[in-house]
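Feature request, filed as a ticket because there's no other form

It would be nice if the structure record came with a short human-readable summary line next to the tokens. Right now we just get the raw output. Example of a typical job, pasted below so the devs can see what we mean:
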Amino acid sequence: MEETRMIKVTVEDKTYTYPYGTPYRTVAADFQSRLPWDILLVNRDGKLCELHKVLDRDCSLKMVTAQDKPGIQTYERSAVFLMLKAFYDVAGRENVRRLSVEYSLSSALFILAQGNFTLDQSLLERVEARMRELAALALPIEKHSMNTDDAVELFQRAGMVHKAQLFSFRINSHVNVYSLDGFVDYFYGYMVPDTGYIKCFGLELFENGFVLRLPTQQDPGRLGDFRPSYKVFRELYSSNQRFEALNASNVAELNATISQGGATSLILAHEAMMEKKIGDIAAEIAQRKGVRFVMIAGPSSSGKTTFSHRLSTQLRACGLRPHAIATDNYFKNREDTPRDEKGNYDFEGLGAMDVEQFNRDMVRLLNGETVELPTYNFKKGAREYNGNFLTLGEGDVLVIEGIHCLNDQFTHSLPKESKYRIYISCLTTLNIDNHNRIPTTDARLLRRIERDARTRGYSAQATIKMWPSVRRGEEQNIFPFQDSADVIFNSALIYETALLKPYVQPLLFGVPRESEEYIEAKRLLKFLNYFLPIPADNIPKTSLMREFIGGGIYHA
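Raw output as currently delivered:
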């Protein structure tokens, strides 16, 4: 009898042995008691593996829970699969015309459901009860490799035409699909091994659809707070309608447009939509006679700089005289900058700004006085005065950009009627298909990777490494003030991922396999594979995307 081959597995610098072919789930069970949350995946030497996979080589393993980014993404994806199965079971597959996961909204996913049923709380209670019933059964979530042509035929028969269309642009001859109790679907990313892992969820009616509430990465054991920004939701919903009007509400439709030679007309149509929106904002500002300060804030890589230039152009067209002011010039001198808990300078918090000097200068300008404005010397870490004098006359407005511009504490001395506040963000509503959404943070990260490489010489690895810190700063200093804005401006462009693909792809391939950032780089590369690329030739020089790829007419 042949002796069983033993595999060496290193976990936390200790080596263990397991028989060849042992499922990762079995290995994970031996270490589950050391962790507060369920192990959902394993990281094998920098490669994520689902728990149904088996040991076939000596390796080092790290356990992945929902407190890790890949883990919470896996949990969300699996919960969506469970919700879809339960909804079809309760409503009847033949009665569901559309069931689409649209976008993230305050620790929840907004979902549209249309068909021969009444979407009310009673239906959602029955769907949630079915979800809990399926979860209690711990039904296996099975992965199968299918011939791509067979997958196209399968999803066409199931009425999932966008999935079938998406695979028609796939080069690989095979595709992985998941099945749950007879329900088959395709998902971008990994799954938990069975429904028993999906314990924390809730369904609630919201606007013209419902939300699937989920836990957060910080606390996987309970539902995240649901405090949606209604202004952001309305802008997302409006953007989604505009995308559908352009016949590009998902990647399959976008690819079809590109492959049929329609990219240029799509680009120009979306750019025209964006310019009209900026013009409408400028017209509203001009109508409010008391406005002297246009305050612009938004998260990283939203395109704030280009937007402020384009808005200034539109303000001039409305008969106003805009003057740009960057709040970065009001940083405190380096020695006065507060430090965070790790002893590093905290440049993100309001404490890094000389709030009182900013308010004194702005009040004096509002009163018609001449003010010498500062310039911050970042090399020296100090404010300088270089003879930049300004006096506000009739029709003059200040266009002020900075992360704290929506925070009333930052502009506490300025009358409310003198301020017009704009929140700008890249709120993408373009999804891979009806069941696979694209996080808005992914779109911003891709923008940032390209801009950092082009303007700062940063590697994709460096940008990915700093991204969690950037996101924490946004959560604290920007997102809480979204609803205080007079208007939400969505800077997402329907074609941007297809445009960024040729720029970002080589940078992501440069992330070292042994680095912690490799998993995120690989995920983004897989994501980019869904898109057909488009060249930059026909992107207008005024486009917001020029801020990231270069070649624009604005200094950004």
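Something like this underneath would help us a lot:
The chain has 15 helices and 19 strands.
Residues 263-287 form the longest helix (25 residues).
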